[in-house]
Amino acid sequence: MRFSGWRVLREGLTGNKGWKPHWRDPEPKSEYDVVIIGGGGHGLATAYYLAQEHGITNVAVLEKGYLGGGNVGRNTTIVRANYYLPGNSEFYSHSLKLWETMEQDLNYNAMMSQRGIINLFHNDGQRDSAVRRGNSIVNQGDDAEILSRERVRELAPFLNFENNRFPIMGGLMQRRAGTARHDAVAWGYARGADMRGVDLIQNCEVTGIDVENGKVVGVQTARGPIRAKKVALAAAGRSGQVAAMAGLTLPIESHVLQAFVSEGLKPIVDHVITFAEGHLYISQSDKGGMVFGSYLDFYSSYAARGNLPMVEHTMESFVAMVPALSKARLLRSWGGIMDMTPDGSPIIDHSPIDGLYLNCGWCYGGFKATPGSGSVYAHLIATDRPHGAATKFKLDRFRSGVGLMDEEGTGAQHNLH
Ligand SMILES: Cc1cc2nc3c(=O)[nH]c(=O)nc-3n(C[C@H](O)[C@H](O)[C@H](O)COP(=O)(O)OP(=O)(O)OC[C@H]3O[C@@H](n4cnc5c(N)ncnc54)[C@H](O)[C@@H]3O)c2cc1C
């Protein structure tokens, strides 16, 4: 079933009776070439690129709940390639390019909106670091520009320019950044993978990973055992728990990150805007809600809701920067479980167990990584070699120090990424 303007028109005029389910609901087979654990954005994108780029279609994605019910459907939808550090910079550049063609590739409307991101700076030090980051982004081949205070005021007149404590001195803008409809991204990749023969199996929790003589041979699931030549983790916030099923301890802590959405308001915020004070980020959804968030809750947890001090901090930051919206009502808030690594960068690598692959440690930035992660992970699984855009995301950097962002003197602070 292909989507087009004509199709939408025809269905609209004929009672919408011709739409078909986007994917099948197959029974699990007893054996696959590749089993992917986790039907979030990364697992589904990996399955799609395995089939599309490498012709590997005897693949199952096993999801314990429903497709897209994890973080891929819980994030604040920001997509960008404005990373500073080597390793991340080229990876997110690769990912943003895939975002730009994804809707055509998948024949699916993911509501990709390149509305631009503006990272505000409030003091000389932040300005210098924004300039340094901008130069690094441009050197990588992506777009970045420094905005003066006056230019920021033209683009976003609703911001608080009179705040003495956090004066807005200007901003770093990336025009190709923006937002996408998060769950549509999962659905688009799911549909694309299913069309190419991948089995998407929902309500199928993986409860064990079978290893014989140092090699993975399959998984135990809520729907019975499944044998597999290769098993690929894509379980995001649950990565530590799933890896433990194979006896592995990952350098990952799971933390809650909250997000918030206000009641629908008239269009006011045209871009994604981030405030260096309080690490606040906001955009306005197509329905008019302000979508925003800030820091992690900063303690390990598997809860899907966050704590009140962080709610208070986020609201304070929001009202400090956009006092005009202080009377807007909050519609809802929620949390998602983030797989945090010590250096804020992901792991995409072989595991010490033959045939078991790792894709985790996305911290709070994995949505924008979805197409890039799927493409480089599929490359690793298919060829057993790292993709050129993801050579630094090795597991052993935490043991050896080699390639660790911190060891290279570029800093281990998460928000530098
Ligand atoms: C509030 C919030 C805001 C965020 N904002 C942004 C943002 O603006 N931009 C950005 O780039 N990133 C953002 N992120 C991060 C991003 O959402 C995640 O890094 C990314 O979605 C993780 O990859 P995923 O989509 O594959 O995860 P998920 O969708 O969580 O997929 C993992 C899947 O694995 C399944 N699973 C787990 N254990 C098992 C098991 N044993 N068996 C079978 N299945 C299992 C889960 O059910 C889940 O569906 C945000 C996250 C949150 C929570």
Structure overview:
This protein has helices spanning 5-13, 41-54, 88-106, 124-140, 149-155, 182-195, 239-244, 308-321, 370-383, 397-400; strands at residues 31-37, 59-62, 78-79, 117-121, 145-148, 170-174, 178-179, 199-201, 206-212, 215-221, 224-233, 253-264, 272-275, 280-284, 289-293, 296-300, 330-340, 347-350, 356-360. The protein is globular, with a radius of gyration of 21 Å. The model has no long low-confidence stretch (mean pLDDT 94). The protein folds into two domains: 23-108 and 182-251 and 343-416, FAD/NAD(P)-binding domain (3-Layer(bba) Sandwich), CATH 3.50.50.60; 117-178 and 254-340, D-Amino Acid Oxidase, Chain A, domain 2, CATH 3.30.9.10. By secondary structure, the protein is of the alpha+beta class. Helix 2 (41-54) packs parallel to helix 6 (182-195). It has ten helices and 19 strands. Strands 4, 5, 6, 12, 13, 14, 15, 16 and 17 form a nine-stranded mixed beta sheet that branches. Strands 1, 2, 8, 9, 10, 11, 18 and 19 form an eight-stranded mixed beta sheet that branches. It binds flavin-adenine dinucleotide.
